[in-house]
Amino acid sequence: MPLHEKVHGHVVKQQQIANKCFGCGPGNESGLQLKFVLDKERQRFICRFRLPRRFVGPPAHAHGGIIATILDEAMGKVNKLHNLIALTGGMEVKYMKPVPLFKPLIVEGWELRVIGREHYRAAEIRNREGEVLATSTATFIEIDPHRMFARYLKKKHSDAT
Q1: What is the mean pLDDT of residues 90-103?
Q2: What is d(CA 119, CA 128) in angstroms, rounded to the nearest whole number?
Q3: CA–CA distance from 110 to each of 43, 114, 115, 122 (Å)?
Q4: How far apart are CA 102 and CA 48, in angstroms?
Q5: Which positions ≥6 away from 132 have C-beta within 8 Å?
Q6: How confident is the model at residue 14, as a pLDDT?
Q7: Domain 34-160, what fold?
C-alpha cells in the first residue's frame, strides 16, 4: 500500500513493504515470526521461542531445515550492528542434540570477525537448561541491495503504479 508524504509543496509516493521474511516477518503467517533483541553488552542478538507442531521432523522434534533457518536468522540479525545488508554466502550447521517442539528455547547470534565484505558469524540454540542443541558458523557477504535487486524493485514499482 503506497504512502504519501508531503515534501516542500509536492506529494511523494512511498511504497510500504511488509516484512514477509520466513524467519522473522510478522507479515508471514506461515513463518517462524522470531522476535530478536540485542544484548548490547555482549553484542549478541537473542530470541526466546517455542516451536509448534508444524515444524516437526523426527517425532516431537524440529526438522533440521528449520533448525538451520533459525541459526541463519540469528546470525543475519548481526547485520543491524553495522547497518548493512549481507547475504549468507556459506553456512555450516552442527546438530548436537534433537531440538524439541513445544519447549522453551533460545537462539543467540554474534559476530566473529570482518574481513572486507565478508562477515563471519556464529550462532547456537540452547534449551532452558543451557544445553547446546545446535551450532552454526557462516560467512555473510555484504551487498549493495539497490544494485542486486534493482530489476526486481523496478518491476514491483511499475506493478504498483
Answers
A1: 97
A2: 29
A3: 7, 12, 15, 6
A4: 12
A5: 96, 97, 124, 125, 126
A6: 46
A7: Thiol Ester Dehydrase; Chain A (3.10.129)
